[in-house]
Design a protein that fits this description.
124 residues, alpha+beta, Ubiquitin Conjugating Enzyme, 3-stranded antiparallel beta sheet
């Protein structure tokens, strides 16, 4: 009950479209007073995802925007939105953040490859 495995689909009309990104939500015993920890597994190439897969997102940070009223649906939508709208003010994965800033076309190619590799077989 304290660990949920979820699939976050890439938003239509974005570079992430067509991919489904596996994320595990790890809930603490005192949830909803504390936010869950979200971990992409396998790890994705994204400025706000640490090398171990943990997500850096303000609504999952108790010292920032977490509120006990944030639902699981809100978390999953927040993760989906984060895919295409990275926060470069809070990078967790420096290689992808630097690529997005310095080589946006290279970043785009990397994301498109990643989305293609995460496309469910039925959708191909």
């Amino acid at each position: 009950m304290l660990m949920w495995e979820c699939g976050v689909p890439g938003e239509p009309g974005t570079l992430w479209e067509g991919g489904v990104y596996n994320v595990t939500l790890h809930f603490k015993k005192n949830y909803p007073l504390e936010p869950p920890v979200a971990v992409f597994d396998p790890v994705i190439f994204h400025p706000n995802v640490f090398e171990q897969g943990q997500v850096c997102l303000s609504i999952l940070d108790q010292s920032k925007d977490w509120r006990p009223s944030i639902s699981i649906k809100d978390i999953l939508i927040g993760l989906q939105m984060l895919l295409d709208r990275p926060n470069l003010l809070s990078p967790a994965q420096h290689l992808s953040a630097q690529m997005l800033e310095n080589d946006p076309e290279g970043y785009k190619r990397q994301i498109l490859r990643q989305a293609k590799s995460r496309t469910p077989a039925a959708a191909v």
